[in-house]
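Convert to structure. Protein one:
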Amino acid sequence: MDNEKLIHAIERYERSWLLFALVMIVVFLIFIGYTLTGFAFYVPSAAERIDPTKVHSEGSLFANPRVEKTGDNIYTAYVVAQAFNFLPGEIRVPKGARVIFYVTSPDVQHGFYIRGTNVNVQVIPGEVGKVEHTFDEAGEYLVICNEYCGLGHQDMIGKIIVEEN
């Protein structure tokens, strides 16, 4: 009889821990859902593919890295991350501008992180990363390569200057 009581006590103990684990999983899923919706989090993805050997070729969107005004306070930036700089190295937009970034690399993996924002793209050769951001505050934002890309990695910094209207 004592053995049967012990087995039931162990089952109750196991059920308690199982219930605790299930509650924690539900809580974590709720937190993830809240973060995804509440903080405007999104996962950047490849907008398209490009042959890395033809990034700078004539006719490529990235042959002349640039920023274009494409709408009312909407800008499109074509950025090339390469050893060991960003092209263009400096981007100027007015305060309140929504900028659509298309980023690619002709050589190795790089990062495209705009400090002070939630913009962070892993730049992979052969892929064009697309991400958007609205710059609501004037100032200077550093663009940093946050993926190790070689010996000059620490010097790979660009700028986005957001000017008062």
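Protein two, convert as well:
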Amino acid sequence: MRYISELIDEKKAVEKREGSVVLPGRDRTRKENRVNLIALGDVGGTVLMGLRLLGGDVISSIGIYDLNENVVKRYEMEINQICFPDVRSLPEVTALEPGSESLYDCDMLVFCATKGVPPVTTAASATAAGGAGHMDVRMIQLEANGELVSMYASEAVKRGFSGIFAVVSDPVDPLCAIALKAGLEPEQIQGYGLGVMNGRASYHARRHERFARYLSEGRAFGPHGEDLVIADSVTDYDDEISRELTELTVRANMEVRAGGFKPYIAPALSSGAISLVETLGGGWNYSSVYLGGAFLGCRNRRCRDGIEMEDLPLDDRLFRRIERAYENLKKLV
């Protein structure tokens, strides 16, 4: 049996625990966290809705920033009008002024900005030509979005930002690497793209008996693109079934695009809002963490000592799939 901790750079100090390994770092969360969100496009706006509805126990306020001031005004009004018919508290949404230093005065900065969203028709034609194997739309976004994340991460360093820099924009893992190059600390950065892949695998597992074990025994690893690794079970791994479920999970994105829609709702909520809230509350979630050579998506949680990453015994075939994905990620940036 192999362990995902074998991929961690040997120069990186870690603390091994039963079933997990801790990547040492500062405790960057509080009982009540101030969250600021960059960009209110389809994804950012949906993430904001999720944070407002789900974050009451761990988020005290949500600052919103977008280049379009009218969009900011609209979301400040509408999201603050979402409430329960009783006294339950929801995080207050506040508008951040363009160029405001307060953008970096928070416990978590959520990066949802994007320049290069592929047109629905382009991605749909890729599906018709053979699916994700012929075109991973996330790679189209890397160059443009990389410039954006570098700009915001560099400014965060300049202003002494000490919170969590959460990358939601695609492609998540390479963008995290760019944020690292900008000067942020490794355990300060997390990427949020794997949650929806767990959600898509679970979707198929609920509908097809051959994949049902995933719901109780399965795991997702790696980037949320072609090198995604879905394991039907970590205790009794079946390579054939796992690869079949992986293919269905990867293609789910393109299937939505083939219908003429941008597949942003599930990613914004499963990878975004839900995983962000779990991170702030110290709960287990799917997100990308830095292993020393690249950021890799896995099941982890924030703790007092840093980031605790699940580290279970893995079938050799499963480990080799994860290792291949990790090596490919190291080559991207």
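The first strand starts at residue 15 and ends at 17. The chain has one domain: 4-332.
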